[in-house]
Amino acid sequence: MNYENSLAFAQQLDQADPLRHFRDRFHIPKRDGQPLIYLCGNSLGLQPKTARDALNRELNTWQNLGVEGWFDQPEAAEQPWLSYHATCKDALAHIVGAEPSEVCPMNALTVNLHLLLASFYKPTEKKFRILTIKGDFPSDQYALETQVKHHGLDVAKTIIEIAPQDDGESTLGLIHTTDIQKAIVEHADSLAVIWMSGLNYYTGQVYNMAAIAETAKLHCIPIGLDLAHAIGNVPLRLHDWDVDFATWCSYKYLNGGPGAVSGVFVHQKHHDQNLPRLAGWWGYREDRRFDMTPGFLPASGADGWQVSTPNILALALHRAAISITAEAGLVALRQKSEQLTGFLEYVLTPFDEIQLLTPDDPNQRGCQLSLLVRKKGKALFTYLTEQGIIGDWREPDCIRLAPTPLYNTFEDVWQVGEALRKFF
Ligand SMILES: Cc1ncc(COP(=O)(O)O)c(C=O)c1O
Ligand SMILES: Nc1c(O)cccc1C(=O)C[C@H](N)C(=O)O
């Protein structure tokens, strides 16, 4: 697309945007009565206007029915709480490219990572190592480290981290897909599992998940993905890519609220394998759960990884939010996202003080651009915030801005260019 740096051009794109009405479905935060330019969906997505009603519905059910809210009552809840999670499956399956039986909302990301590793990390004397990406989100690093210790293994000998190569391009933190594939092949004999992000939280780089999963499969190594920054942001086809397992957050691009419920993906091919797991009664066969008999019988599919009673209020927010993403559709969202982020890249280009950490290839990024600002970076971030432009700051010199196709406009992006012009 040929961009122009003018307000009229940005407004023209907004008028032509088939998703423009979705912005009205969200509360846009305001300061002094003016809407903020909110470019921080990479950290916390905005509140859908349906969120409050969704919560109220379940609060009313609780108020009116008490415990009977769990069960099917003729006069009762629209959706009995016992099977509430199931009403999120179609939307989630669409968003991650899965079968409904392969996904289930539950817990929080890091908790799910531990639960999934209990099933998929089964170190043996020969195959005990974990391959991961250096600089992936700290919570994942802590989870891997403590899993390794939990198995009585030495962290330094067990975790292999793929670091960016010092070849100019990669010094900015990018990692070539071929380097990840090479590392898989090189260490295949000792690898028990691969765990990595699909989209790097710091650089905004999207890895070629399909190609990496294919290499992992060729070498029979289970691969799991952290999709915190990828879900609702970039197209995913977890089933077809033959990814073994995955988990994500829904408080970013899925707009489920602070600390929103996470979810898991477990590929169909693992459903009947009776994999080891850390079980709880909510993962028990639903039709027999209340028999309360000894001996764990897992529910089929991803549901069998549930542990505890779900937080229905969190699920209500989740359901309301993901239905908006599913309604907009990942194809349309991605189309707008590429244009919106391309426009942001275009308005940033004149400023030599800003270097992009994020790849310029649209296939290697989602909506987030990470701006490396070596001089006056923090001052610029503070200035943007004062101007009502909300991004986030990551030490030591990175500003992340994420124009989100569900609620951001081309005019928002144009305003960033204007603010930068005044600052520099
Ligand atoms: C890539 C990534 N992984 C893991 C997490 C941790 O998620 P949680 O705090 O929900 O476990 C986050 C966000 O905080 C993240 O961005
Ligand atoms: N989970 C967060 C929180 O509880 C407070 C503030 C920020 C977050 C985040 O999600 C940070 C985010 N994962 C990141 O990419 O840095």
UniProtKB/TrEMBL annotation:
N6-(pyridoxal phosphate)lysine: residues bearing it: K252
Entry's EC annotation: 3.7.1.3
Catalytic activity as recorded in UniProt: 3-hydroxy-L-kynurenine + H2O = 3-hydroxyanthranilate + L-alanine + H(+); L-kynurenine + H2O = anthranilate + L-alanine + H(+)
Names of required cofactors: pyridoxal 5'-phosphate
SUPFAM superfamilies in alphabetical order: PLP-dependent transferases (SSF53383)
Residues where pyridoxal 5'-phosphate binds: L109, T110, F137, P138, S139, D140, D226, H229, Y251, W281, T309
Pfam assignment, any one: KYNU_C
Biological role: Catalyzes the cleavage of L-kynurenine (L-Kyn) and L-3-hydroxykynurenine (L-3OHKyn) into anthranilic acid (AA) and 3-hydroxyanthranilic acid (3-OHAA), respectively.
GO molecular function, one term: pyridoxal phosphate binding
UniProt name for this protein: Kynureninase
Assembly and binders: Homodimer.
InterPro entries: Kynureninase, PyrdxlP-dep_Trfase, PyrdxlP-dep_Trfase_major, PyrdxlP-dep_Trfase_small
Species of provenance: Spirosoma endophyticum
Keyword annotations: Hydrolase, Pyridine nucleotide biosynthesis, Pyridoxal phosphate
Gene name of the record: kynU
PANTHER family: KYNURENINASE
Family classification: Belongs to the kynureninase family.
